[in-house]
Amino acid sequence: MRLAPHLHRLGNDIVACYLIDTPEGITLIDAGLPGHWQDLQQELRAIGKTEADIRGLILTHGDSDHIGFAERLRSTHGVPVFVHSGDAVRARTGEKPKVSTPPLRIGPTIQFFAYGLRKNGLRAKYIREVTEINDGDVLDLPGSPKIIGLPGHSPGSVAVHVEIADAVFVGDGLTTRHVLTGRVGPQPAPFTDDPAMALSSLERLAGLKASWVLPGHGAPWQVSPDEVAETIKKAAAAAAR
User: Fold this and answer.
1) 3-class secondary structure, 220
2) What string of pLDDT tens digits covers the 241 residues of the chain?
3) Do 123 and 68 contact (CB within 8 A), yes or no?
4) Does pTM top 0.85 for this prediction?
5) What pLDDT score was predicted for residue 239?
6) Do residues 171 and 190 touch, judged by C-beta distance below 8 A?
7) How far apart are CA 2 and CA 175, in angstroms?
8) Sheet hosting strand 54-58, strand order edge to edge
9) Which of 176, 202, 214 shows the shortest CA–CA distance to 4?
10) In 3-state terms, what secondary structure has residue 90?
């Protein structure tokens, strides 16, 4: 789905990943679930491109619902996969700490897991080879994506700022649809390793020039990055009452 010039979303409000289309080629942000491969094919056909136009895939972190088709794209088409050094092991092996399950509602939770099944979420293939990146890196990829460390959800969570797309991609640094409760609107993401760190990390988005803040779960959010940290902190405080 085209959101704006150069900017496309694959998937939906349950799980999403993104495509940036430029004259120099395509950069992907996250790879959703394995079944999002078909969504990628459909979007490439719609814009008259192929996998040969994809120059790189950047992961906002290494969780299984973000690495979906990454290994297939890497091994079949030679597309490099970039992940922060703090999440490289997670992306290659799936190793991660156990976190407490937050309160949930049966309907939205079933919907989340049913969607995962439809998109082959139980068949996640971890990535055999990754290119490690770090905070502050500007990658030599279409759109010159800049990496902003956003630790908290995981040690190597990042935001990716792409000026040509007028967007900052935040992965699970926040969500606009809680996958376990169905609650919509900007709020902290569940399954976060260190919730307090995740909240404070959002302050690092201030000063970025973008009209879109794009999470891995939930509707696209049109807001100034300057407003993000305070909005999510208020949502966290309200949920704790």
Assistant:
1) coil
2) 999 999 999 999 999 999 999 999 999 999 999 999 999 999 999 999 999 999 999 999 999 999 999 999 999 999 999 999 999 999 999 988 888 777 889 999 999 999 999 999 888 899 999 999 999 999 999 999 999 999 999 999 999 999 999 999 999 999 999 999 999 999 999 999 999 999 999 999 999 999 999 999 999 999 999 999 999 999 999 988 7
3) no
4) yes
5) 87
6) no
7) 20
8) 2-4, 7-11, 16-22, 25-29, 54-58, 81-84, 131-133
9) 214
10) helix
Assigned token pair, 73 = 């794209």
Residue 201 φ then ψ, to 5°: -65, -30
Q: Which of 30, 18, 25, 14 is nearest to 50 (CA)?
A: 25
Q: What tokens were used for 229? A: 């940290």
Residues 6+ apart with CB under 8 A from 5: none
DSSP line for 150-216: -TTSSTT-EEEEEGGGTEEEEETSSEEE-TTT--EEEE--SS-S-HHHHHHHGGGGTT---SEEEES
What pLDDT does 101 receive? 72
CA distance 46 to 40: 10
Q: What is the rounded distance in angstroms from the CA atom of residue 241 to the CA atom of residue 228?
A: 21
**Cα distance between residue 218 and residue 154, in whole Å:** 19
CA distance 95 to 53: 32
Give CA separation, 53 vs 14, 70, 150, in Å.
27, 15, 29
91 SS3 class: helix
Do 176 and 221 touch, CB atoms closer than 8 A?
A: yes
Exposed, middle or buried, 140 (CB in 10 Å: 0-12/13-18/19+)?
exposed
